[in-house]
């Protein structure tokens, strides 16, 4: 049974099934061993020039009747503030390495158009650029995470973007920023040195990127009191050689403070051409999605062990700046726009992923779900004047109690969730203590058919009092929230 505990909040993310297991499920928490903070930046988001994320998501037409402030949708801003979005990554993604930032500043009528060759071949007018993104982050009260162009850009181009963003000196880039209406520097801290340089960002080898990183990073300067947190383009999935290459050389390690890791969860991993439907799936595909979501724990463990050998003090953060479920696109939509619906399955896989990030907060310092609006595992969907909060949105809302809270280590005894002869642990969790001494537990049940009783024990705490509980669930495993309907999740 859950013992009474003073000033404790209990949050549970459970699927309500028809049967209840009799085998004991027990989570033991160890407050006396707590020492690491769960950075709020683990709850970050990703906004790429892809499909209707920027144009049609955040950004509306000049003559739009949708309520907006300077063409930024008011309802989107209000919803993202509801989940206390801590940071926003931009402009990509693959788009970052074909984006030339000077085309997105100055009078809108003077900005040249460009073709988005990565995502749908659409023409963009560059009306949403640096100043618009910074204004969006200011409206959201979140940190900007800017990803620079290594793949098709130059060292000078990246160096001047950093100067334009952060310099208050008398200089050409400072003067140009002021001419464009911004007197004070933007004070951008988080800056990515390229994106997926092993793939769409240049198809580089780890050894070649290591040299490129050193060169580009050398010219990304600090201005005033602002200190850049440079994020190196790191590995995907199990590319441990990439991590080893960037970490083993002392001089290379001095060139970055964060190492990115990308991992997308799919129900079917045999081929990228068939990932499975976002809404019409079997219990077997539910299981494989959960099983594959859990793989991020293995990847983090193994990449962290490599990093620990060269950085035992954990000064370099692991930055999971692209993660989430990648399903097949919704029928009838542009295949280059990556629009997919969002069900209870996505909520549960998001919850277990966030629990994993929380429990690895000694090394994981930032994560960015892909993507924030209308693309992949979005927290919001928009269509004309309407906005939908997806099941994943409600996970981020529930889990915001963990922002900058003290991680409480735990051990879990769980029944197995078994499907088709395959098994994984059904129960997963994380726990934190906030500055007011309240404990927050999040528990995820991966089994769509069976409700679970879970006993929670806090070692060393004698008096315990549960004051609040919340559940995210629905009547069907493929339940979703959609336009013009009551919310199902």
Q: Summarize the main sheet.
A: 8 strands, parallel, barrel
Number of helices: 11
The fraction of residues assigned to DSSP E strands is 15-25%
Name the helicity range. Answer: 10-25%
Please tell me how large the radius of gyration is: 22 Å
What is the spatial order of strands in the main beta sheet?
A: 5-8-11-12-13-14-15-16
Number of strands: 26
| Quaternary structure annotation | single chain
Mean pLDDT: 94
Distance between the termini: 28 Å
Q: Which structural class matches the secondary elements?
A: alpha/beta
The coarse silhouette is globular
Unreliable stretches? 1-22
Structural description of this entry:
The chain is an alpha/beta fold. The chain has eleven helices and 26 strands. The chain has an eight-stranded parallel barrel with strand order 5-8-11-12-13-14-15-16, surrounded by six helices. A five-stranded mixed β-sheet has the order 1-24-23-19-4, covered by helices on one side. Strands 20-3-26 form a three-stranded mixed β-sheet, with no helix packed on it. A hairpin with a 5-residue loop joins β23 and β24. α8 runs parallel beside α10. The two termini are 28 Å apart. Residues 1-22 have low confidence and may be disordered.
Which key phrases capture this entry?
single chain; 489 residues; alpha/beta; 26 strands; 22% strand
């Amino acid at each position: 049974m859950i013992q009474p505990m003073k000033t404790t909040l209990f949050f549970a993310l459970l699927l309500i099934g028809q049967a209840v297991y009799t085998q004991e499920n027990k989570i033991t928490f160890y407050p006396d061993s707590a020492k690491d903070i769960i950075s709020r930046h683990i709850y970050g988001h990703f906004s790429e020039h892809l499909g209707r994320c920027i144009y049609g998501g955040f950004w509306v037409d000049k003559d739009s009747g949708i309520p907006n402030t300077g063409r930024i949708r008011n309802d989107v801003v209000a919803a993202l503030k509801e989940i206390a979005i801590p940071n926003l990554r931009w402009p990509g993604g693959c788009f970052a390495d074909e984006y030339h930032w000077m085309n997105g500043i100055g009078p809108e009528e003077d900005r040249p158009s460009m073709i988005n060759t990565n995502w749908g071949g659409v023409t963009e007018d560059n009306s949403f650029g640096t100043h618009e993104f910074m204004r969006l982050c200011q409206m959201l009260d979140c940190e900007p995470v800017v990803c620079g162009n290594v793949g098709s850009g130059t060292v000078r181009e990246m160096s001047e973007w950093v100067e334009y963003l952060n310099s208050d000196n008398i200089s050409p880039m400072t003067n140009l920023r002021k001419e464009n209406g911004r007197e004070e520097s933007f004070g951008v801290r988080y800056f990515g040195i390229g994106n997926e340089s092993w793939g769409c960002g240049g198809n580089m080898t780890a050894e070649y990127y290591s040299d490129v990183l050193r060169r580009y990073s050398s010219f990304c300067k600090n201005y005033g009191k602002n200190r850049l947190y440079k994020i190196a383009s790191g590995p995907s999935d199990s590319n441990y050689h990439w991590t080893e290459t960037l970490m083993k050389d002392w001089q290379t390690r001095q060139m970055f403070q964060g190492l990115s890791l990308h991992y997308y969860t799919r129900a079917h991993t045999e081929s990228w051409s068939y990932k499975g439907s976002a809404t019409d799936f079997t219990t077997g595909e539910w299981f494989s999605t959960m099983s594959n979501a859990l793989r991020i724990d293995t990847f983090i463990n193994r990449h962290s062990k490599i990093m620990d050998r060269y950085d035992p003090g954990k000064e370099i953060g692991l930055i999971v700046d692209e993660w989430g479920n990648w399903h097949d696109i919704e029928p009838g939509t542009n295949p280059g726009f990556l629009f997919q619906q969002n069900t209870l399955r996505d909520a549960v896989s998001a919850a277990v992923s966030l629990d994993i990030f929380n429990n690895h907060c000694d090394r994981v310092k930032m994560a960015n779900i892909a993507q924030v609006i209308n693309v992949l595992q979005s927290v919001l969907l928009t269509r004309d004047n309407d906005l939908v909060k997806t099941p994943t949105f409600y996970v981020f809302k529930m889990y915001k109690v963990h922002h900058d809270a003290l991680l409480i280590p735990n051990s879990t005894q769980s029944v197995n969730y078994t499907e088709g002869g395959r098994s994984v642990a059904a129960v997963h969790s994380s726990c934190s203590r906030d500055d007011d001494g309240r404990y927050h537990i999040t528990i995820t049940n991966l089994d769509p058919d069976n409700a679970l009783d879970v006993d929670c024990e806090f070692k060393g705490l004698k008096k315990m009092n549960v004051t609040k509980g919340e559940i995210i669930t629905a009547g069907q495993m493929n339940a979703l929230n959609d336009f013009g309907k009551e919310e199902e999740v």
